[in-house]
Amino acid sequence: MTDTRFQHRHLLGIQGLGPEEITTLLDIADGYVEQNRSVDKRKNLLRGRTVINLFFENSTRTRTSFELAGKRLGADVINMQAAGSSVQKGETLIDTAMTLNAMHLDVLVVRHPDSGAVKLLSEKVNCAVINGGDGSHEHPTQALLDALTIRRRKGRLSGLTVAICGDVLHSRVARSNIHLLNVMGAQVRLIGPRTLLPSGVERMGVEVFHDMRRGLEGVDVIMMLRIQNERMRGNFIPSIREYFHFFGLDQAKLALAKPDAVIMHPGPMNRGVEIDSDVADDVERSLIREQVEMGVAVRMACLDVLTRHLPNRDGAA
Ligand code: NCD
Which of 106, 200, 241, 289 is 20–30 Å from 89 (CA)? Predict the structure, then answer.
């Protein structure tokens, strides 16, 4: 088994991880990509372990891929949604976590609308906790799967120029990606209207562009972000039509990037709002489907490394 240079108990964010730790996770995930493409996808690495997916927000890709990842490693996986749980009856986040903790689970994957909620919860439980997205703070497994997708296509992360475009203000995906790409030596550009870029974001070591055409010049990777209406109070954009005109990715804007530039989107996509279907479905340039595939492998790698540190409960007092 690969010697793990990942010594954290939880995976709460990319911030604070070093290049070796990120590389370790990506290398392990790379191995799982091959396994997932074979007929026999199952391993017994996590036999006897329990993974609970606790989701207080909607999810398609993240929840399903954590479920598949756990099952492919042989764990028992349970999905819990806030709707249908006692959260609806007023149970607090901590009480819910403590209840689950009492059932001796090994890994808790949590998605929550409040930034910081997952960290708070990780301080109360004995199991390993993985952040499946907390508010507009972090979404570490998304940044890891994005990095794996880029690394497999481009052969590296270091030295690439990556444009992250759109609703950066509300995006935990953007925040985790900025940390990861910076640490791995890529150059990050943020592109969007002033209303959708956090003030002072330059301090994160990125270049900021309000003109998408200028921002896309010569980039290697274009990451498009969804307009997150559910996190907006008030009007951040004048109209969908105007937004698409200035900040939607279409073939004309794509032509300004490098000829071999690739297109990414974490999903769910709003076709015709931030991205034209023509571009999203471009088989040569769009990596959107690969991102989903890498999501399972990356989540297997995360479950793998975090459970290596758990005490063997049968042997423990
Ligand atoms: C993202 C999320 O929920 O943060 N989706 C995902 O996990 N792939 C991005 C989004 O909702 O726009």
Answer: 106
